Amino acid sequence: MNPIPARLDHLVLATPELAVTVADFARRTGVMPAPGGAHVGFGTRNHLVSLGGSSYLEIIGPDPEQAGADGPRPFDVDQLVSARTVTWAISPPDLDAAVVEARARGYDPGPVRPMSRRRPDGTLLEWRLTDGDTAHPSGLVPFLIDWGASVHPTAAGLPVTPLLRLSATAPDPDEIRPLLAAVGAELAVTEGPVGLSFTVDSPRGPVTFG
């Protein structure tokens, strides 16, 4: 199995303290993540690093400039005690068709909803993604994303730490594999506590994040 999943759009490294995690990533890799932007109304903001090609790492955490959020913040960042790779996203050729196919195969990735944010240069990015309570709670099954006519985040000249591999552990890998197949994704899953980990190449050598 390819250590880098096909159609990988991005990995999500969630943190309760964005500035601390960005600084830690820079210290360990020698590469400083670029500011992404705020998710207005959701109470979060992010920093980004290219993983090579059209894939990237999103480091996301609470936005100190947003006093509150319209409900729980994405990826339960307020409940985390430390940074953790919580999930990942793939970009199918046809998002809506992929949702229909997944449901036909017994897995509901959730409803499709629009989102947006502005880059620091003012460029508005708009995308659609799957989200909802029907998504698998482990985060091991990727959500689906479609950037439509927007410029992809990797087109902004992000700093690069090439992805070497992505893997996962689960108490029952055989439960996860059919769900991955339902959304057209492949991921190496072995037995163990629920978790995602990835390794990037960097000026300081390979670095693994869990």
How would you describe this structure to a colleague?
The protein is an alpha+beta fold and 210 residues long. Helix content is 15%, strand content 36%. The protein has helices at 18-29, 95-104, 173-182, and strands spanning 8-14, 34-39, 44-52, 55-62, 84-90, 112-118, 124-130, 143-146, 163-170, 188-191, 195-200, 207-209. The strands form two sheets. The chain has an eight-stranded mixed sheet. Strands 10-9-11-12 form a four-stranded mixed sheet, covered by helices on one side. A hairpin with a 4-residue loop joins strand 2 (34-39) and strand 3. The longest helix has 12 residues, at 18-29. The radius of gyration is 16 Å and the shape is globular. The model has no long low-confidence stretch (mean pLDDT 94).
pLDDT below 50 for ≥5 consecutive residues: which ranges? none
Report strand %: 35-45%
Mean pLDDT: 94
Distance between the termini: 20 Å
Shape: globular
Helix content: 10-25%
Q: From the helix content, strand content and strand pairing, which structural class follows?
A: alpha+beta
Number of strands: 12
Strand order of the largest sheet: 2-3-4-1-5-8-7-6
Order of helices and strands: EHEEEEHEEEEHEEE
Oligomer: single chain
> What count of helical segments does DSSP give?
3
Largest sheet: number of strands, sense, barrel closure? 8 strands, mixed
Radius of gyration from CA coordinates:
16 Å
List the keywords.
single chain, alpha+beta, 4-stranded mixed sheet, 12 strands, 15% helix
